[in-house]
Amino acid sequence: MGAKVAVRADLSRDAIVDRSLAIADAEGIGAITIRRVAQEFGVTPMALYWHVKNKDELLDAMGDRFFEHLDPVPTDGDWADQLRAAVASLVVALRRHPGAAHLAAARVMHCAAGRDLAERTLGLLRAEGFTVAQAADIARNAMQTAVMLVTNEAGAEPHAAAELRQGLLETKRNALKALPIDRYPHLVEAADAMTDCEDVDGYYEFGVDMFVAGARATLAAAKA
Amino acid sequence: MGAKVAVRADLSRDAIVDRSLAIADAEGIGAITIRRVAQEFGVTPMALYWHVKNKDELLDAMGDRFFEHLDPVPTDGDWADQLRAAVASLVVALRRHPGAAHLAAARVMHCAAGRDLAERTLGLLRAEGFTVAQAADIARNAMQTAVMLVTNEAGAEPHAAAELRQGLLETKRNALKALPIDRYPHLVEAADAMTDCEDVDGYYEFGVDMFVAGARATLAAAKA
DNA sequence: ACCTGAACACCGTTCAAGT
DNA sequence: ACCTGAACACCGTTCAAGT
Question: What ranges make up the beta strands (E) of chain A?
Answer without folding.
Answer: none
